[in-house]
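ECF transporter S component structure dump, as promised
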Amino acid sequence: MNDDRQVRPVRLGRRSIAALALVSAVGAVAFGWPLLAGGESSLSAHAQDAPWLFAALLPLLLGVVVATIADVGLDAKAIAMLGVLAAAGAALRPLGAGTAGIEPMFFLMVLSGRVLGPGFGFVLGSVSMFASALLTGGVGPWMPFQMLAMGWVCMGAGLLPGPDTLRGRRELYVLGAYGAVSSVLYGTVMNLQGWPYIGGLATGVSFVPGDPVGENLGRFIAYCLATSLGWDLPRAVVTVVLSLTLGPAVLKALRRATRRAAFETPVTFEPPRR
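C-alpha cells r here:
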C-alpha cells in the first residue's frame, strides 16, 4: 500500500475551529464594513484600519497555533516545518513580483494547505505573506489584509474533500481547479480592501458611501473586471500549470515529511536504562 494514503492532514479540534472562526470573522468585518459605512466621515477611517487589524491579527494567529497545539499536540517539528514552508513561499513570491499576475507562491500554498490541513494552512498562509512582505519591502496598509486573504486560501485547500483517499490525477485536477478559483477570489477580496477609499475613479466603478449595498457591489464587480482581472487570470493559469506539473513531486515530499514528523504521535518519556 502507498504510504502517502496513510498521511492525514493535521486535524481540527474544537479549540482550533473556534480560533479559526474568530479570526475569520474579524477578517470578514475588516474587509466588508466600509460597504455599510454611512458617509464620508466614517469611510475615511477605513484607510487607518491596517495598524489596528495587524495588532489584532498577530494574537489571533498565535491563538490558532496554541489551539492547534492544544488539540493535536504539535511540537517543535511542526513549528520547524511551518518556518521552512513559510520561507519557501516568501522566496517564491518575488520571482514573479506580481508581474501580470505571475505569482508561483500560490501553488505551494494550496498544496501545503491540502497536506497539512486547514488550521496549519491558515497560519502558514498568513506567516508566508508576512515574511514575503518583509523580504520584498512590501510592508504597507495592505499587508494584514494580504495575510488574512492568503490564510483563507490555504485553509480552503485544507478543507477540500477526500483528504485521506483522493490521490493521483483526480486530486491534481481538484487542486488545480481550486487554485484557479482561489487565485481569482484572492484578487477580488484584496480589491475590496482598497476600492472604497480610492479616489479619482470613473463614476460607474466608484464606491459611493451610503448607497445601497447591492448598488455598490455592482460597481465593485465592474471595478474588478476593469482593473484586476488581467492579473487574476494569469495568476490562476500559473497556479494550475504548476499544480499539474510540479504537484506530484511536491505532494509526495510534503506527505513524506509529514509522515516522518509524526505530528499526532504522542510523545512518551522512558526512564534511562541502568
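Residues 169 and 274 are 53 Å apart (CA to CA).
lmk if u need the other ones
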